[in-house]
Amino acid sequence: MRARHTAAVTLLLMLAPVSACTTGPTLENQEEVTAPPGDSKHLTIGSAGFTESDLLAQMYALLLDRAGYSTEIISVTNREIYEPALENGQIDVVPEYAATFADWLNAKKNGADATPVGSPDLATTMKALRALAAPRGLTVLDPGRAVDQNAFAVTSAYAAEHHLKSLSDLGRSGLPVRLAAGDECVQRPYCAPGLKKTYGIDITGVDPKGVGTTQAKQAVQSGRDQMVLTTTTDATLDDFGLVLLADDKHLQNADYLVPVVNRSRAGSEGVRTALGKLNTVLTTKDLARLNEQVDSWRRLPEDVARTYLRSHGLIPGD
Amino acid sequence: MPDRSVAGPLTDPGPSHPCGGTSPRTGEPDGRPATAPGCNGRVTAPPDDCLARNEWICGAYLSSRRDILWGAVLQHLQLTAVSVLIGLVIAVPLALAARRWRWAAGPVLGVTTILYTVPSLAMFSLLLPVYGLSASLVVAGLVLYSLTLLVRNILAGLRAVPEETRQAARGMGYGPVRLLVAVELPLALPAAMAGLRIATVSAVSLVTIGAIVGYGGLGNLIYSGMNTYFKAQVLTASVLCVVIAVAADLLLLLAQRLLTPWTRRQS
Q1: Keywords, A to Z (chain A) (predicted)?
Q2: pLDDT digits over B216-240, tens only?
Q3: Can you tell me the distance from the alpha carbon of A51 to that of A53, in angstroms, rounded to the nearest whole number?
């Protein structure tokens, strides 16, 4: 594979005399961006192409439209593609997850083996994230209330029988627990090792059925496994008779939703105010419900976002 | 703008809120923590339509996404047409050069063939720093892919022109340019058109990969539909892709028959 890519790069450079552009703004050793905050009136919002990202991009667009900006949304598939575009101003605003994005930028700067900077504490995470984002010309706006982080669920019958509300309760109960999760769970500090160490839960095994997949939930529903790893904005738990156990000792990273903007194009107070309106309103449960309308009911993200903002008075009605 | 007469009312989370907490928050931006424990944020029963039931064939999908589908088809057609045309403009001189100079044939065929073997995901990622997030990125990738098919077939067509025909033309006083335009290119047309048809059909399918940068025509819909297991969307967009490919192929076949009337009399 690698040799083939190198050959292809060489050929591309031979064919198209554009080598001057190939050292664009995506490389690591770029100059630090020190341009003052700008206020472009036309803004491009990036979506990472999954439902929650689409919904937030639509909400950002509607809020910015309301604040007098003209907006367009571009949907790409992953961070490797939209982050460089955000740095060079092809994209101006993206919805991000604080801890995940901090770790991603950290890995980009310090290599894949760098010590993670995202943590369960929101303030620490935001500080690390802003320190990593600023030199790239990116401004991280304030986080709201919605957080999409890993979470653990059990059946409501199991929870009632053993009086479980939190992961601490489960640890105290001493029950043996087989966990339906991704196979990487065996190693990740937030998963099996953390559950044992932080909560004292007796994890007897990890059933590699994926994170929050239908198969994983069915395994818990049927009693084959006792607990499933999913996320806080998963709205299908009710369908499987599952309830979340509280992460009361804060094992999970603070993956709060934050808007990240290109400072020289969208670093203005106008953008900050417009997007900040969502912070006090949108909760994790709201987000789960909106995800459900798109994922399970297959409504259009744009319609779901508009209806939500209208019902909360953030944009005018018809 | 999508037609919201279908989807709109069904997405309204306002009334009939069985869990309490979230509904009457209009005009009170500082909302309270949303829902009662155990409610898990569900507000209304799922609507009972073919979208919610996730059926493969769904009229409500077509009516609620009509504008989105139409936009995707147009983008798909534009990306395909522009790429193939640019590919053709580049391929003809390359094939002529390879025909004219023996030493050029090896490198031209080698390079275009190697380009063809680059995986499409890698191709678009490699072109990303050059073109940024734009339609030109997808067009550039598709042009590079079309080259090998076009160059090889045009060259095969030119090489198949019988030497006697060429000599006859020269004997009639044809210069090199007139020989090329009036004799060689028309005789190379059937093979060249075969290449063009393959290149076009393969471009129609490769456009979908453009979804990774948001310019994939119907691929955008297929990609997002795969993520959420949205059957109606995946099926509809795939069928439209096939329809575009078949229509383009038939159109080119028709053009070929009109352009080469002499080939029909032979068989």
Answers
A1: Signal
A2: 999 999 988 887 789 999 999 999 9
A3: 5
pLDDT digits (tens, 9 = 90+) for B255-267: 999 998 887 765 5
The answer to whether residues A122 and A160 belong to one domain is no
How many CA atoms within 13 Å lie on the side-chain side of A30?
18
Q: Supply A206's token pair.
A: 């990890």
**Strand-pair category, A42-47 with A70-75:** parallel
A16, exposed or middle or buried, with CB in 10 Å at 0-12, 13-18, 19+?
Answer: middle
Q: What is the interface pTM, i.e. ipTM, of the complex?
A: 0.72
- Report how far residue B31's alpha carbon sits from residue B43's, in angstroms, rounded to the nearest whole number: 16
**Are A264 and A118 found together in one domain?**
yes
Distance of alpha carbon B74 from alpha carbon B140, whole angstroms: 18
A210: left (phi over 0), alpha (psi -120 to 50) or beta: left
- Please write the tens of the pLDDT for every residue from B4-25: 333 333 333 333 333 333 333 2
Between positions 203 and 262 of A, the ones with CB within 8 A of B are 235, 237-238, 243
Cβ burial A109-132 (10 Å sphere, 16+ → b, else e):
eeeeeeeebbbbebeebbebbeeb
d(CA A141, CA A133): 11
A18 touches chain B (CB under 8 A): yes
pLDDT digits (tens, 9 = 90+) for A245-258: 999 999 999 899 99
Q: Which CATH class is domain B59-259?
A: mainly alpha
The CATH number of the domain where A208 resides is what?
Answer: 3.40.190.120
Q: Count CB atoms within 10 A of the CB of residue B129.
A: 18
